[in-house]
Amino acid sequence: MNILDCDFLIIGSGLAGLSAAHYLAPHGKVVVVTKRETQDCNTNFAQGGISCVTLADDSFEKHIADTLDAGAGLCNIEAVRAIVEDGPARMDDLRNMGLQFDQTADGTPDLGREGGHTMRRILHAGDITGRNIEKTLIQATGHQPNIRILQYTHAIDLVTTKSSDGRPSCIGVYLLNTKTGEISAARARNIILATGGAGKVYRYTCNPDVATAGGVAMAWRAGADIENMEFFQFHPTCLYHPAAKNFLISEAVRGEGAELVDANGVPFMARYDRRGSLAPRDIVARAIDHEMKTRGLPCMYLDIRSKGKEFLTKRFPNIYRECLRFGIDMATDLIPIVPAAHYCCGGVKASVDGRTNIEGLFAIGEVACTGLHGANRLASNSLLEAIVCAHKCAEWIAANPREFPTATIPDWIYGDAVPSDELVIVRHNWDEVRTCMWDYVGIVRTNHRLERALHRIENLRHEIRQYYFDYSVTSEVLELRNIADTAYLIIKSALQRKESRGLHYTLDYPNRLEKTTDTILSGYVLP
Ligand code: SIN
User: Fold this and answer.
1) Burial of residue 447, with CB atoms counted within 10 A of its CB: 0-12 exposed, 13-18 middle, 19 or more buried
2) Do residues 374 and 502 touch, judged by C-beta distance below 8 A?
3) Backbone angles phi, psi at 344, to 5 degrees
4) How far is the CA of 434 from the centre of ligand 1 (A)?
5) Considering only CA atoms, which of 476, 484, 483, 488 is closest in space to residue 422?
6) How far is CA 170 from CA 28, 174, 190, 504, in A?
């Protein structure tokens, strides 16, 4: 089996992964592996922007207060402060790499506003901020001789040994070349998970197809602690149209005055929260869900007609164009929307510099749970976290060099696995996991539904494990195994929380407890 040695192995090529590569390149050889093409990541789809204290009327204290308020009592205040305060320096890094944030006519930053923010503080590059960031990083990392990016390279599982203090120690990862089917491995001094999100665990999501929770699932199978997985954020306004797969109507649209309304144009959010359509996402998504379920409607609507075509085509050119493609003119029509799975606030328990309970293994970006988001992420804090934690992780690694592992990676055992002629099973199980999660582990939960979901998912995991051993490994099967394991972690965490808080709302415990703790699921032990 081929083994590729490097200093730093990064799994994932979004903002967290590529900026970690950028910051680590001066310290050694970096290899980035990504399962499709480099730009296939959640970052590329981020519309709103990056929240960052920029102008004099804003302050770190205000940004911290808004983050804590959205986080519903579960944020780690030190992590929040460290990330918020490092924002301006990291935005300068992005500008130095060539990113241009929008400016007003007088040259000051044009700041957007989103739910839960008491100020305008969202730096944005048009209404395709993520795509512009990704492009900037691909260019910046492309020039660096110390960085190698391997596309179509799917991480299968982390390889661990035992460290001197008995805890697991990560030395590398098995890799599948998705073009040739060949399995190889990579070995490194440090392994950094930057695998992004998990939206594909749910049937309806605004995430791209690559968001299949690989990082959380691999880390858990390797023995990492996983934190707060019950807090899955549903974005309130995904476009509802039979031909639109996963198109988001950015919260920035509400920031510019859009109201949530019913089919007759009557606003309803004031009945749920004094902040109306700009309340934090957990509240807005739940309100929409409630309106749809009680009135038996397939969707609700956004109304931004008052802003007129000139403003909308300038501020939201991409959203305007996309809506028009589906026959909706934002300037004259209501926009049909539904909530959809958007962001996993839980993840691999990590410090702000990415350290996990596994030696040599780091987690940054959406795959990590640093305590920034608590029980509900404040809009546009995720891109901020991704770049700040990538920088802090690189600084920590540079200051604490780890010896290159001496242990070898055992050859991959193919056993009796054969190519599958039963792909229908994989497709069926994909649908079953995602439908089960949507129906039983969605915006509003009950013990009964969670128990049912657990039973179903445990059976599916059993079946998938057998399939995984019997047939040759493919991307589809790896992703299926990962979404099923992550579904299990979400359900287990949800069952442990005996209250409603932030994104976790259950009819069995509708109130918030006075005292609470994070939900931790300890690393997986092979049965
Ligand atoms: C959006 O543009 O609404 C998404 C921003 C975010 O999720 O932070």
Assistant:
1) middle
2) yes
3) -95, 105
4) 22
5) 476
6) 18, 12, 8, 32
Distance 211 CA to ligand 1 centre (A): 16
The whole-model pTM stands at 0.95
Cβ of residue 382 lying under 6 Å from some atom of ligand 1: yes
Copy the structure tokens of residue 71.
């986080």
Ligand 1 pocket, residue 178 CB under 6 Å: no
Where would I find the beta strands (DSSP E) of 128-264? Answer: 147-150, 153-162, 168-177, 183-193, 226-227, 232-239, 259-261
Question: Please, what's the b/e burial string for 457-467 (b: 16 or more CB within 10 A of its CB; e: otherwise)?
Answer: beebbebbeeb
- In the three-class reduction of DSSP (H, G, I as helix; E, B as strand; rest coil), residue 53 is classed as coil
Q: Grade residue 267 by pLDDT with cuts at 50, 70 and 90.
A: very high
Index of the ligand 1 atom closest to the CA of residue 249: 3
DSSP secondary structure, 364-378, as one string? -GGGEE-SSSTTSPP
**H or E segment and range at residue 301:** strand 300-303
pLDDT digits (tens, 9 = 90+) for 93-112: 999 999 999 999 999 999 99
Look-up of token digits 């690694």: 397
Q: Which among 380, 383, 384, 387 is the best mutation to test ligand 1's pocket, defined by most ligand atoms within 8 Å of the CB?
A: 380
